[in-house]
Design a protein that fits this description.
heterodimer, A: MetI-like fold, 2 domains, 14 helices, about 75% helix, about 0% strand, globular, B: alpha/beta, D-Maltodextrin-Binding Protein, domain 2, 4-stranded mixed beta sheet, about 45% helix
Chain lengths: ~280, ~450
C-alpha cells in the first residue's frame, strides 16, 4: 500500500540527499567529470566571502520577512474572523497570491518595480520622489524582494491562523466578556495564547521556506547584475555554482551546510516551543 | 514529537532538490511541429536551385532532429527553412527548441550531462572548446569533405574558432558585428548633423552632450556594461586585448585595455548615459527604441527588433567611431553543432548542411534574421534593407574586426569580468583597481586550463 509513496520518496528525496552529501566530497565539473577531493569543498566554503555574504543575506530575508509576514497574517486573520462585511470575498482576495505561480508573481512585480517604466515609480513621481532602480540598486533590492515575498505568503499563513482562531471555543470569549474584557483584551488574553499552536506551525514553515528563498530572487534580479551579490540567498548561490559555474561538488557542500543550519534552527525551535506554545 | 522532527528534516532537505528538479527539464515545451508544408505550394519554387544534398539519395534519410537555439528572433526564418528542407527530405522532422539567451547554456549543459541534449544546437566561440573537450560534439570534417562543402566560403576566423584539436565541429551559420544606431528625430530636434562613417569618439561625445536633455528625458548615448557590443570594440581600437593571443594571460592589467574601458566610464561620469542600474533593468537597445537614448551600440543580430519597433523609420546606423584614428569591432559567428549522442546522425547532418547551404543563407539575408556566413550572401542582407546603412556592419567585419575573446573556461572568467567591471560602470569602484584584480583572477583561471 505504501510502496508508491516510498518509491517516490526514495527516488526524489532520499537518493538525492545521499547523492548531494556524497558529491560534496568530490570536484564535479562540467558534464559530471568528477574526482575525489575530501573536505576541500568545505574548507573552501568556510573561506568564501561570497558564501558568508549570501548567508548574511538569507538571515536578512528571515528577519525582514518572517516577523512582518506573521504579524500581517495574524492581523488579517483576526479581522476576517470578526463580523465585517464581505469577509468571504476578502478571504479569497488575500489567498489568491498563494495559488498564483511564483514565477508569474515575480514577473509582474518586476514590471511594477521597473526603474524606467514601473507603476511604483510613477506613483512616487506624483509625490515628487525621484525614480528608484528597485531591482538593480543593491541597497533597495533586498527589501524590495522581501515585500514581494511577504505579499505572496501572508495570505496562505492567514488561512492557517484563521483556522486556528476559529478552533478556539466560544466559551472562553463568553467568559471573558462576562468579566468585562474589551475586544482588545480578548485578543491578547484569549486569542493570542490559544492560537500559538498554529503560530508555531506558521513560524517553522515560514522560517524554513525563507531560508530556501530562490525563485523570487532568481526571477527578479538580473543574472550577475549589480544587485546580485547583495541579494543572493544561499540557495541562489548554490544554484549558480551548480548550474552556471559547473561546480556541482562545491554546490553540494553549500546545500549540506544550509541543511545543517536549518536543522539546528528547527531543533532550537522544537526545544523552545514548550516555553510559549499552549496546547489546549 | 519525533514525527514532527522527521517532517522538519524532510522540509529542510527539500532545498537541495527544489533547485535540482527545477532545472532537470531541458525542453521548453514550446515545440514547433514542422510538417506544415503544403505540397501545392511547391509549384512556384525555383527549380534551378542546387541544394547541398550530401550526394546521397535523399529519400533514405528519415527521423527526428531536435534543434536548440537561443534567438527567438530567428524563429520565423527557421520555420521557413524547415518548409524548404522538407521539400528535399520529406521524412525528416525538425523540432525547434527555442530558448532564451540567459538560460541557454545552463540548459544545454544540464541536457548534455543528463544525456538529453538536442541533436543539433547553436554553438559560439566562448563555449566551443568546453563542449569539444567534454566529448559532447560530433566531429564533422569528413562529412564536410564528402558533401563537397568548401570551408573557404565561410569567414576564416569563425571556421577556425570551431576547429578544436584538428577536428571541425561546426559550419558557421551567421556572424555579427557592431554598429552605432542613432535616432534621427532626436538629432533633428537638437539641430545637429547625423554622424558619418569617418566620425571619431570625440565627435560622438560632443554629439551626446548636445543630445542629452537636462531633465533626464533623453540621454545622448547608452554606456552599459557590455563586452561584445561595447568596450571590447574600444579596447581593440585602443590597441589593448582581453586575452593574449596564446590564451595564456589576461589583458585587463594592460594600460591600453583599461583606456578602452575608461572612455565608457567617462560617458557615465559625464551623465551622458542612463546609469548602469537603469540599463540593467531596461537594456540599451530597448531604451534606444523607446526614444530615451539617442545613440546606442547595437549588434547586427538585433535588426529584427529594430524592424519591429515603432521607431523603425526614425533610426539609422553608422560605423563605430574611431579612437586615435583606429577602429575595432568584435566579429563573432555562430555555428551549428551535432551531438555525439544523436540517434539520427544522417538526418542531423542533412539539416546542418542545409543550413550551411546557399538557400538557407539567402533566406536568412532576406528575412533579416542575421548576416549569413556564406561568402557573397552578406550583400543580400545589406540590399534587403536599403533604408538603413547596413553596409557598415559588413565593412566592420571586413576591415577592422577582431576575434571574440575566448578560451576553454570562458564562462568562468566572463563571470569575473561582470563581477568587477559592472561596479566600475556603476561608478562604485575605480577602473584600475578592479581591472588589475580581474586580471589576477582571470590569470588563475587560464593557468588551470
Amino acid at each position: 500500500m505504501i510502496a508508491p509513496v516510498t518509491i517516490g520518496l526514495g527516488i526524489f528525496y532520499f537518493y538525492p540527499v545521499l547523492k548531494v552529501i556524497l558529491d560534496s566530497f568530490y570536484h564535479v565539473g562540467a558534464f559530471n567529470k568528477r574526482s575525489w577531493c575530501g573536505l576541500e569543498n568545505y574548507q573552501k566554503m568556510l573561506k568564501d566571502p561570497v558564501m558568508w555574504q549570501s548567508l548574511g543575506n538569507t538571515c536578512k530575508y528571515v528577519l525582514l520577512i518572517v516577523p512582518a509576514m506573521i504579524l500581517i497574517a495574524l492581523v488579517l486573520a483576526s479581522l476576517l474572523n470578526s463580523g465585517i462585511k464581505g469577509k468571504s470575498f476578502f478571504r479569497v482576495i488575500y489567498f489568491i497570491p498563494a495559488v498564483t505561480m511564483g514565477a508569474a508573481v515575480a514577473m509582474v512585480w518586476s514590471w511594477m518595480y521597473n526603474g524606467n517604466y514601473g507603476i511604483i515609480n510613477a506613483i512616487l513621481n506624483l509625490f515628487g520622489i525621484p525614480s528608484q532602480q528597485f531591482l538593480s540598486n543593491p541597497d533597495l533590492a533586498l527589501p524590495a524582494i522581501s515585500v514581494v515575498s511577504i505579499w505572496s505568503t501572508a495570505g496562505y499563513n492567514m488561512i492557517i491562523l484563521l483556522a486556528g482562531i476559529q478552533g478556539i471555543s466560544r466559551t472562553y470569549y463568553e467568559a471573558a466578556a462576562i468579566d468585562g474584557a474589551s475586544r482588545f483584551r480578548q485578543f491578547f488574553h484569549v486569542t493570542l495564547p490559544l492560537v500559538t499552536p498554529s503560530l508555531f506551525f506558521v513560524l517553522i514553515t515560514s522560517l524554513i521556506s525563507t531560508f530556501q528563498m530562490f525563485d523570487t530572487i532568481y526571477m527578479m534580479i538580473s543574472k550577475s547584475g549589480l544587485a546580485m551579490e547583495a541579494t543572493q540567498s544561499m540557495v541562489v548561490y548554490f544554484y549558480r555554482n551548480a548550474f552556471e559555474y559547473s561546480k556541482k561538488g562545491y554546490a553540494s557542500a553549500l546545500a549540506v551546510f544550509l541543511f545543517v543550519i536549518i536543522m539546528i534552527m528547527t531543533v532550537i525551535q522544537m526545544k523552545g516551543q514548550s516555553k510559549w506554545v499552549n496546547y489546549e | 514529537m519525533n514525527k514532527k522532527r522527521l517532517l522538519a528534516l524532510c522540509l529542510g532537505t527539500a532545498v537541495a532538490f527544489s533547485a535540482i528538479s527545477g532545472c532537470g527539464g531541458t525542453e521548453d515545451g514550446t515545440q514547433t511541429p514542422s510538417n506544415e508544408t503544403d505540397p501545392k505550394e511547391e509549384d512556384n519554387h525555383s527549380s534551378g536551385n542546387t541544394e547541398q544534398s550530401n550526394g546521397e539519395g535523399t529519400g533514405s534519410i528519415s527521423g527526428e532532429v531536435r534543434y536548440a537555439f537561443w534567438d527567438t528572433l530567428q524563429q520565423p526564418w527557421l520555420e521557413e527553412c524547415i518548409k524548404e528542407f522538407n521539400k528535399i527530405y520529406p521524412d525528416v522532422t525538425i523540432i525547434l527548441e527555442p530558448n532564451v539567451w540567459d538560460e541557454y547554456w545552463t540548459k544545454l549543459e544540464a541536457a548534455a550531462t543528463g544525456g538529453t541534449i538536442a541533436d543539433v544546437f547553436w554553438m559560439n566561440g566562448p563555449n566551443i572548446a568546453k563542449y569539444a573537450n567534454g566529448d559532447i560534439l560530433l566531429p564533422i570534417e569528413d562529412r564536410i569533405a564528402a558533401a563537397g562543402i568548401d570551408l573557404e566560403d565561410y569567414p576564416k576566423g569563425t571556421v577556425d574558432q570551431f576547429d578544436i584539436n584538428g577536428h571541425q565541429y561546426a559550419i558557421p551559420k551567421d556572424f555579427g558585428t557592431i554598429n552605432v544606431w542613432y535616432n534621427k528625430t532626436l538629432f533633428d530636434e537638437a539641430g545637429i548633423a547625423y554622424p558619418t562613417d569617418d566620425w571619431t569618439w570625440e565627435d560622438m561625445v560632443s554629439m551626446a552632450e548636445k543630445l542629452t536633455k537636462p531633465d533626464g528625458s533623453v540621454y545622448g548615448i547608452a554606456a552599459p556594461y557590455d563586452g561584445q557590443s561595447g568596450f571590447y570594440n574600444t579596447v581593440f581600437a585602443c590597441g589593448g586585448e582581453i586575452i593574449s593571443k596564446d590564451k595564456k594571460t589576461s589583458g585587463y592589467d594592460k594600460a591600453e585595455t583599461q583606456a578602452g574601458i575608461q572612455c565608457w566610464i567617462d560617458l557615465q561620469e559625464a551623465g551622458l548615459s542612463p546609469s548602469q542600474a537603469s540599463l540593467e533593468e531596461t537594456t540599451a537597445d530597448a531604451q534606444f527604441l523607446s526614444g530615451k537614448v539617442a545613440m546606442a551600440w547595437i549588434g547586427s543580430w538585433l535588426l529584427p527588433t529594430i524592424l519591429e519597433s515603432d521607431l523603425k523609420d526614425q533610426v539609422d546606423c553608422v560605423e563605430v567611431p574611431s579612437i586615435n584614428g583606429q577602429k575595432g569591432n568584435t566579429a563573432h559567428g555562430l555555428g551549428n553543432c551535432i551531438s555525439k549522442e544523436t540517434e539520427n546522425p544522417d538526418a542531423a547532418w542533412a539539416w546542418v548542411a542545409f543550413l550551411a547551404g546557399e538557400k538557407a543563407n539567402i533566406m536568412s539575408a532576406e528575412m533579416g534574421a542575421a548576416i549569413p556566413a556564406l561568402k557573397g550572401t552578406a550583400q543580400k542582407w545589406v540590399d534587403a534593407y536599403p533604408q538603413y546603412h547596413l553596409q557598415s556592419y559588413v565593412t566592420a567585419a571586413e576591415e577592422y574586426s577582431y576575434e571574440y575573446p575566448a578560451s576553454v573556461n570562458t564562462a568562468e572568467w566572463n563571470q569575473y569580468e561582470a563581477d568587477h567591471l559592472k561596479k566600475v560602470f556603476a561608478l562604485e569602484t575605480d577602473l584600475k583597481t578592479a581591472a588589475d584584480h580581474l586580471a589576477t583572477q582571470m590569470n588563475e583561471v587560464l593557468a588551470n586550463e
